[in-house]
Amino acid sequence: MIPRFTTLTLICFTGSLRSFLYFNNNNGIILEIIIFKIESTDYTLSLSLDSISMGYLSCILLVSSCILIFTIFYIQNTLNYRRFIYIVMIFILSMSLMVLSDNFIALIVGWDGLGLISFCLVIFYENSQSLRSGILTVLTNRLGDSLFLCSIYYFLSIGGYSTNYINTINTIFVFIIVAGRITKRAQIPFCS
Description:
The structure is a single chain. By secondary structure, the protein is mainly α. It has one domain (2-184). It has 6 helices and 2 strands. The chain has helices spanning 2-25, 51-74, 81-100, 104-122, 128-158, 171-184; strands at 29-38, 41-49. Strands 1-2 form a two-stranded antiparallel ribbon. A hairpin with a 2-residue loop joins strand 1 and strand 2. Helix 3 packs antiparallel against helix 4 and helix 5 packs antiparallel against helix 6. The longest helix is centred in the C-terminal third of the chain and has 31 residues, at 128-158. It is globular and about 55 Å long.
């Protein structure tokens, strides 16, 4: 089972690396999928395919394939091995969506996916210590989510929900974004 997922991740890594080289010499493209429409406003799921996003995606997929190779030797004989692999694959998908997102709708879906999957990975061994750590992870993630929603409100107040408005940044906004990212990844002082 794991060799298929590892092979798939390595193939995706090769494709994203090739796309990185292609978009490095050419302009990027933006894929837009209309999710819903309210009155005259289209709410779309926008994915940006350019050299920067493909470079980050290549790094994510390379590290993820190394993690999947490591799991062959580390937890292959574990009772819930298959569940762990599926959780890691959803984690990779959420991280990829977050890197490729071009607006806040796609970004928040990837962001919340990372929070949920982080909780699932922390409580994987199903004992009281991992559950306590999982609850602490959820609480710090909620703090990061509230800061993230404040940054979305800031962008909506200056004109839109696309990330193309980043050229009008002030110091308070930078603090909100950095603090939200630190709490989301449980970095010091938000780690257990």
